[in-house]
């Protein structure tokens, strides 16, 4: 069998979730598991967090229904609400909570007759300028929704454009706008994503919404003591399938991007962009071989990539390769470092791992 596998450490997921809660003891934390739990498998991750997380957050009703069909009856927030009015019947049937960010959603909700009031998270655009109502519109909407029989618990929500940055200027502007509104309306508040959960206690609300940190990626531009406690959840693991020795000056792979600067040994690894490993990985992107750091040498192919192992004479065919995560010897290569080498962010790497790569779940006892 092809050795490439994504090991998912559910104990690490629970650790990171508890860490998010410990960072914000006054808040309840919605575990964000949209996009198949950032590529980790939403059903398995939700099952690991059932009984801990008071609610899950997903992008759309399809993702929420898949969780219900798997037997998960925890509340689920649809972070973008409904995409068409006919979804309200399913929202009602399954007890989903909905974000409301647009006038048509308000009208659809207020002309619907649910069996029980639907919890609503009213979204204000505090400066991200993507979804949500302008701050000036909120007061009248809040009044309307809080009187409507269709509406259950009402929460004011917003999303930060730059809570991860070391320069907090725009973050503070957004925070001021939303906090002023929440005070005026005495509204329960939900604004903190992962970076705000880790670094901005002032942004902790009644409900926080940690996502990427649950998977062990550090969302902060500059790590802090708290973000360093996160544990990687996914280990993308493979093996060396071939080795070759090259004379100085010989090229490796497509277009010969990498050229041996000295007599070199190259390990060929079973993992490529056809698995979701980023083709933009530059020479020098880190990889662990037998738990030791080496670097990508040459362009990533569809099913393979090549690593310079000249300084590791012990490497054999079958040697363990970790593209990110934790090696057998305990060494960790963070997905954030790999993302740097690919000029991207951990979110795209994790959500990009394709179904071709089998997920292997390590439960609490095994991990
Ligand atoms: C994805 C998402 C989050 C989680 O963001 P992270 O940066 O992964 O913590 C929070 N809130 C909303 C509305 C989201 O869409």
UniProtKB/TrEMBL annotation:
Keyword terms of this UniProt record: Isomerase, Pyridoxal phosphate
Source domain of life: Bacteria
EC number of the protein: 5.1.1.1
Cofactor: pyridoxal 5'-phosphate
Pathway the protein takes part in: Amino-acid biosynthesis; D-alanine biosynthesis; D-alanine from L-alanine: step 1/1
Calcium found in the keyword field: no
Any Pfam family the entry gives: Ala_racemase_C
Name the record gives this protein: Alanine racemase
Source organism (scientific name): Halomonas dongshanensis
The organism's taxonomic lineage, starting at the top: Bacteria, Pseudomonadati, Pseudomonadota, Gammaproteobacteria, Oceanospirillales
